[in-house]
Design a protein that fits this description.
Length: 289
């Protein structure tokens, strides 16, 4: 009589190892979460690098953008410049040509603002789109306070020495004082104080010349010059004006008043005055003899 064969109820070695592995939480999490995510991410990556998919996506995006941009409530059809001078308006329109009407989506407000602020005459700009379809541009303009002669160039500068504009002719702005010389724009604040101090002789004042980028010469009519020191220039100029008030100093035959050493002022006479002085000295010597 044959013995009956029974199936071995024990699991196979491979199944046993798999079941033991499945008991680990990290393995279950990987199979249930990370593996599906990896498959999805791989599919997205392959689709994103497929030229056909890229083209279709871009076309769809462009169509959606064009549809939104064409909506009437997004149209900007008016340009306004509140409190901006006509000259600056022309500069802005030449620098940033705006072909209106245009969708608000197509107007790069930040780029327009940055471009406007590159203009010499603009200290700060504000650009915004109002609710009634208007592009509003405001600009804080630099106010010229001096004319700076830099070599052969004439420039208008503001109170900080920043260039405002080029100037074709000096007589185009006779209302503004003149400074000259290399580095004069870096000392505008001191120049303005000197001009205020020189108010008593303003009709004779031609301008201030920066010397060696460290001190000023005051240039008057009749070829006269007041040489100021590097430090204490305003005090030295006041001293000269006091002498002028007391003794009519600047109306005498003097070419230069040298105040570079305030403790020892030096006067340089005209040739005519020198000749007259020599004549008087010679006459005195003759009489003594």
């Amino acid at each position: 009589m044959c013995a009956m064969k029974y199936a071995d109820p024990a699991p196979s070695l491979l199944r046993y190892r798999f079941e033991r592995l499945w008991l680990k939480p990290s393995v279950r999490r990987t199979v249930r979460l990370w593996l599906p995510l990896a498959v999805v991410a791989g599919g997205i990556w392959m689709a994103a690098h497929n030229p056909a998919v890229q083209g279709a996506t871009q076309q769809g995006w462009n169509a959606l953008r064009d549809t939104v941009a064409a909506r009437p409530e997004l149209q900007v059809d008016t340009l306004e410049f509140p409190d901006v001078s006509p000259d600056l308006q022309a500069q802005i329109q030449a620098l940033v040509p705006l072909d209106l009407p245009k969708s608000a989506i197509d107007l790069k407000v930040a780029d327009i603002k940055a471009a406007i602020e590159t203009l010499d005459a603009v200290k700060q700009a504000e650009v915004r789109i109002t609710g009634n379809g208007t592009l509003e541009i405001r600009a804080l303009e630099r106010r010229p306070v001096l004319v700076w002669r830099d070599g052969s160039m004439l420039r208008l500068v503001d109170e900080t020495g920043h260039k405002v504009a080029e100037l074709a002719r000096r007589n185009a702005r006779p209302d503004l004082p003149l400074i000259a010389g290399k580095g004069a724009d870096a000392a505008v604040a001191e120049a303005m104080k000197l001009f205020e101090t020189a108010a008593p002789i303003a009709p004779r004042l031609r301008g201030f010349v920066r010397v060696g980028e460290r001190r000023w010469d005051v240039v008057l009519d009749r070829g006269q010059t007041i040489m100021l020191p590097e430090n204490g220039a305003i005090t030295a100029l006041r001293h000269v004006l006091e002498l002028h008030k007391a003794d009519d100093l600047l109306n005498r035959d003097i070419i230069v008043v040298d105040m570079r050493n305030p403790d020892r002022p030096v006067l340089r006479l005209t040739e005519t005055a020198i000749e007259e002085l020599r004549r008087l000295r010679a006459k005195v010597r003759g009489e003594d003899a």
